[in-house]
Design brief:
The complex is a heterodimer of chains A (143) and B (192).
Chain A lengths: L4 H22 L8 E6 L3 H6 L10 E5 L5 E6 L5 E3 L2 E3 L4 E5 L4 E6 L7 E7 L5 H16 L1
Parallel strand pairs in A: 1-3, 2-8
Antiparallel strand pairs in A: 3-6, 4-5, 7-8
Helix pairs in contact in A: 1-3
Chain B lengths: L1 H19 L8 E8 L4 E4 L4 E3 L7 E7 L7 H14 L7 E7 L7 H9 L6 E4 L2 H11 L3 E3 L7 E3 L3 E4 L4 E6 L5 H13 L2
Parallel strand pairs in B: 4-5, 5-6
Antiparallel strand pairs in B: 1-10, 2-3, 2-6, 4-9, 7-8, 9-10
Helix pairs in contact in B: 2-5
Classes of the chains: A alpha/beta (143), B alpha+beta (192).
């Protein structure tokens, strides 16, 4: 039986894909920090006053329990800012840990919708959940 | 040897005090550094002027809402009442303050009746539109009347935690259980 060149190539490619899937499924998900940090840079108020529509906080934030489950907001500007759900003084930070997977709605005047949503997903413990979590992270990083 | 044990015991006590005061240990969202809670004076549902200074020495849970609220406020107030019960003997060191966003309907008598249904120790605050708007601005509270919903309001639903010396220490998002409040109030009561 004649084996085509592409069939020879398919063997290492398949092995690679299976290896990557195995790694994604069985390696526990970890993060270098449990904190998802969002900062208001210095000068934001001045930029807004000059008409620049600075978006400082996404209207939807996704966190994962046990991996990255602490929302950390920091106001580095020189004036108080409404940031997420609250008013933050200059150089003040706000650290909010989450322990339950759910979707949390916060009133946030910094957004046109007036709302900020924090979606906290369960810790990916099963092989399929790990693969899915890594695929979503990969997709988010690529887009 | 005795000195060494005494030194170790002192160090452990200090470490425990620091750990008890460690903001990261709270289940609520923590402000760092903590600032003094903005002062205000409103009409209190207990018949006295409502000012935070009245409650220095206690931990204050400060929330915003209105007595006709059908969705958020009853759940928040029930949670706070349950948290107060969980504190047992320390309950008297906790003061719940609820400031209305609906001064048109919420006078002091109405607030007193409403809050007493949850816990008679709760104190409500009301005032003029301008007074309440100023307080909301200081605390970053959003409140707006919902069109076509019989005078209902959409409003921020979190609760602020203010420590014994009047510092705004943390913010508890809506929906957290009474155990989380009792846990955090316990930590704030234990801190100097």
């Amino acid at each position: 039986m004649k084996v085509l060149r592409w069939q020879w190539l398919a063997v290492p490619v398949c092995a690679g894909v299976l290896g990557a899937l195995g790694w994604a499924a069985f390696t526990p998900v970890q993060s270098s920090s449990r904190e998802a940090l969002f900062e208001i840079p210095d000068g934001t108020w001045e930029r807004r006053m000059s008409g620049d529509l600075v978006e400082i906080l996404p209207s939807e934030i996704r966190l994962t329990l046990g991996v990255q489950d602490v929302l950390l907001l920091r106001n580095l500007d020189r004036v108080p800012q409404v940031f997420g759900p609250t008013v933050m003084m200059p150089r003040q930070s706000f650290r909010l840990p989450f322990e339950v997977a759910s979707s949390y709605q916060f009133a946030c005047t910094a957004h046109a919708s007036g709302q900020m949503t924090v979606i906290v997903e369960p810790q990916p413990l099963s092989p399929w959940a790990r693969v899915r979590w890594r695929a979503i992270q990969l997709w988010a990083a690529a887009t | 040897m005795k000195h060494a044990i005494l030194l170790l015991a002192t160090w452990l006590l200090c470490a425990a005090a620091v750990a008890a005061d460690d903001g990261a240990a709270l289940k609520a969202g923590v402000f760092e550094p903590a600032r003094l809670a903005p002062a205000f004076t409103l009409e209190g549902s207990d018949g006295s002027p409502l000012a935070l200074e009245r409650y220095r020495g206690k931990v204050v849970l400060l929330g915003f809402g209105f007595t006709s609220c059908a969705e958020v406020c009853p759940i928040t107030l029930l949670t706070l009442a349950q948290a107060r019960k969980l504190l047992g003997a320390q309950a008297d060191e906790l003061q719940v303050v609820y400031v209305t966003v609906d001064p048109e309907r919420d006078d002091t008598a109405r607030m007193k009746r409403y809050l007493a249904a949850f816990d008679p120790s709760f104190v409500g605050g009301t005032g003029t539109d301008a007074q309440l708007a100023a307080v909301r601005k200081e605390y970053g509270i959003a409140a707006s009347k919902q069109a076509g919903r019989d005078g209902s309001f959409s409003h921020s639903s979190f609760v602020y935690l203010i420590d014994r010396v009047g510092r705004l220490r943390a913010l508890m998002p809506y929906g957290r259980p009474p155990e989380d409040y009792a846990h955090d109030v316990g930590i704030l009561l234990a801190s100097p």
